[in-house]
Amino acid sequence: MPIELLVTINETYIPPLKTLLNSIHQTESQPIHVWLIHRQIDPTQLKTLSDWITGHNMTFTACQAIPAVFGNAPITAQYPVETYFRLLSGQILPKTLHRVLYIDPDILAQGPLDELWQLDMQGRPFAAAAHQDQQLENRQRMQINHAYYNTGVLLIDLDRVRQLINFRDITAYITTHEDLPLVDQDILNGLYGNQVTPIDDKIWNFDVPSYANYLEGGLTPEWIAAHTRLLHYQRQPKPWQPEYAGPLGKNYQQAQISE
């Protein structure tokens, strides 16, 4: 059975997505099926992307999220329709699909994903990592008594998500919480953060901008190279931008697909 990989992008993120998939292709022996949820990517670009993915020995399905899927959920400049793609993936993806691994396109794989894919989620809808940087600040801001999880890597039990998540709760939460700067990540933590199976950020969602903090905490570059599976280049600038001067830039360049 393949690893069912979920991505949600617009046209501008196609090159970083190719780099992510190229890095997975270089490090993963298991079959990969890529699910793309999008709003309105040009059909020609979708065909080009599909050909590129299948040329890298992966299979591909694109799902266009039609507005009717989102019911009365607020869609504004602050909360564009893409806000809901991960939270509502259970409603958008086929009911025959039971689990997906969501990965942000600003992530690089440097090891196989099968251990994460096969994780026992203990009946919970999500598995995610909590970054230590700004952890206390985010917990206080959100007024939560559990870890604040980063949703750049998110293992999703679609059956549980279909049972648990509804528009009414999301809409009510947005209405009563005016300041949600991290949008769907804040919504997930606020509504469902106490139902997340924790995974190790050092392995599965390594916060690249906090590289120095990891070293201060006892990790070594050798350990990171040997054990970390997913490097998350969150925040700006991104490693595909010329001005990037952050950590692990060479790692990204080795897998980078620019066109």
What report would you give on this structure?
- This protein has a seven-stranded mixed sheet, sandwiched between helices.
- It is globular.
- The chain has 259 residues and is of the alpha/beta class.
- The mean pLDDT is 92.
- The protein has one domain: Spore Coat Polysaccharide Biosynthesis Protein SpsA, Chain A, CATH 3.90.550.
- The chain has twelve helices and ten strands.
- The chain starts with a strand and ends with a helix.
- InterPro entries: Glyco_trans_8, Glycosyltrans_8_dom-fam, Nucleotide-diphossugar_trans.
- This is Glycosyl transferase.
Topology:
Blueprint: E1 3-8, H1 14-27, E2 32-38, H2 43-55, E3 59-64, H3 89-92, E4 99-103, E5 107-109, H4 114-117, E6 126-129, H5 135-142, E7 150-157, H6 158-164, H7 167-176, H8 184-192, E8 196-199, H9 201-204, E9 206-207, H10 211-216, H11 221-227, E10 230-232, H12 249-255
Parallel strand pairs: 1-2, 1-4, 2-3, 6-8, 9-10
Antiparallel strand pairs: 4-7, 5-10, 6-7
Summary, kept brief:
The chain is 36% helix and 19% strand.
In DSSP terms, counting alpha (H) and pi (I) runs of 4 or more, how many helices?
Answer: 12
Count the E strands: 10
Main sheet overview: 7 strands, mixed
The pLDDT mean sits at: 92
Structure class = alpha/beta
Q: What strand order characterises the main sheet?
A: 3-2-1-4-7-6-8
Radius of gyration: 18 Å
User: What order do the SSEs take from the amino end to the carboxyl end, as H and E?
Assistant: EHEHEHEEHEHEHHHEHEHHEH
Return the CATH architecture.
Alpha-Beta Complex
CATH fold node name: Spore Coat Polysaccharide Biosynthesis Protein SpsA, Chain A
Percent in helix: 25-40%
How many domains?
Answer: 1
Spans of at least 5 consecutive residues with low confidence: none
User: End-to-end span in angstroms?
Assistant: 31 Å
Estimate the strand proportion. 15-25%
Shape designation: globular
Instruction: Indicate the CATH class.
Output: Alpha Beta
CATH homologous superfamily designation:
Spore Coat Polysaccharide Biosynthesis Protein SpsA, Chain A
